[in-house]
Amino acid sequence: MNKLRVWFAIATIAALAGPAAAAEVYPLAQVKRGQSATVRTCLEGRQVVEFPAEVLGVLEKSISGYDVVLIRLSGAEIERTGPFSGMSGSPVYIDGKLMGALAYSFPYTTDPVAGVTPFEQMRALFGTEPGPVAAGGPGGVLDVGTMLDRMASPDMRTALALPPPLGGGEAAALRPIGTPLMLSGCTPAVLEQFRDVFRDLGFVPVLGGASAGATGGAAAGSPPLAPGAGAVVTLVRGDIGMGAGGTVTEVDGETVYAFGHPFLQAGRTAMPLHDSEILAVVRNLNNSFKFFTTGQPVGAVLQDRLLGVMGRLGARPDLIPVAVTVETPRKPPAAFAIEVVRDPFLTPFLVNYALFNFLQAEERAIGAATIDITAEITLTGGETIPIRNVISSPLTAAQQAALFVAVPLQYIFSSGYKDLDVAGVRVKAVIRDELSAARIDSVQVDRAEVRAGETVNLKINLQQQDGRMTAMGFPLHLPADLPAGPVQVFVGDGATLTQLDRQLEPGLFTVSTARQLVGALRNLRQNATVYVKLYRKGDGIFSRGHSFPALPASWLDIFSGSRTQGASVPLRYIHFLEKSLGDQNYVITGAQNFQLDIRPE
């Protein structure tokens, strides 16, 4: 209810301020070399200032078929810094008419030359109706095995399918002006971990926070945003914050244009839009930037395209709540609550960032750790997907635990399946400041020849982290309908068993519907238990989540028919039984295989 009141107040403020009158647009065809221009931006507080510029020429079809107007900026402040991060979107006028948005610069230069996105092209690209938030992919067949590989990867880029690192760039090449990304509640260690990824996305990450001197918003009766004013697109808000700062290009009624270059080129979106107060322009030898605070919410960014972003005053953003509880032996449990934007690419990355930040803040920075992490992904409609694992590592436990939650989210968002919307995420992490793992050293069996329905006693010998040997017993009750002949027995950890299944039955790791993906996520094996599996080479069918081993040839022909293709997967091995020996509260590694001979009755 409180959120509804906030957004009702936003809409009311926007209505009372009245629709902003759009500026007349200067035609691109009339832009000539030598013309005088004026740039508006905010350098301090909320005051918009002007400084002169000169048109150097028009670069036709410079950026993916669109034109760029090259200008030279002047004025004491701008000549010291050149185009700086946060200026993206600053409106450029000729004869009082809006010509475009400041958007590009030349890296590694001190000359105040910048590129301008023509506003008539910028406005035409957006159209009017943005539609719903874009889906993540085309649907179709997904390889769950690839997801499992990503979950095991120590590299964040590989795990979350992030774009590759950008090259250094040439000084003679136009690049989008950097976007300052203000991070509140972020630890320095987390910033170092994510800095390169942020930069590759076009951001200039800056550790900041809420300012005690920040004003409450625009003056009463004035529009919440105006051309040249600062604006913030919020990606994460709550107990930690993440907001990207830019400049408003134009306000046409309730429609807001900003940035002049892609924010993330996310297409249709619904990210929170806030006003902003500029605290200072920080001069830097590498990249000067605006240092800002995030002000009041004023609406939402609805489109993020090649030539900038378009938003609407009073619009509601689409956010996903994430609740995190972290328990350690040193202090009472810590609870965190955040909201992240809904986006096929951004949401998993932001959840990973937030979890890593919370875990890094609560665990010791150096030394071994074991993290028991449980997550519950709630889908629209109330259905939940529970996942759980135990991570034990001398250095990277927090990183691995965060990715364990983020990678399944990445698969859900990128699947493109309909009716698979995430409504919320809850995470609980229990941290111990020690390594907690054991390796299966050997497995002993009391007899190798048995009959179906009998019990075989297993003795599983484990070598603990400190070298101590322990043993656990397990009575293996054989199925009463187990056919006579040799049967293979696997005893080992979940990851090794999954690798075995991928070798034996690769078809089991492809999904083609939302229900199959949900089922695969629910059935992820844990690494804090020992699995026992019985199998034998033979033909069967896997259909609707169930195995049908040793089917007659006539039944196999029916399942292989054209009407059932895609609904069932042929099996090359008969899987008779799989058991988990229960939670051991530490990481299990290693595996043993042996054979039992099933005697006929």
Account of the protein in words:
By secondary structure, the protein is of the alpha+beta class. It has three domains: 1-131 and 175-317, Trypsin-like serine proteases (Thrombin, subunit H, Beta Barrel), CATH 2.40.10.10; 320-432, Ubiquitin-like (UB roll); 437-599, no CATH class. It has eleven helices and 32 strands. Strand 12 and strand 13 form a beta hairpin. The N and C termini lie far apart (69 Å). The model is unreliable at 4-18, 211-216 and 562-566 (pLDDT under 50).
Characterize this entry briefly.
With 601 residues, the protein is α+β, with helices and mostly antiparallel strands.
List keywords for this structure.
3 domains, 45% strand, Thrombin, subunit H, alpha+beta, 6-stranded antiparallel β-barrel, elongated, 6-stranded antiparallel beta barrel, 32 strands, Ubiquitin-like (UB roll)
- What is the second-level CATH architecture of the largest domain? Beta Barrel
Fourth CATH level, the homologous superfamily of the largest domain: Trypsin-like serine proteases
Percentage of helical residues?
10-25%
From the alpha-carbon coordinates, what is the Rg to the nearest angstrom?
A: 29 Å
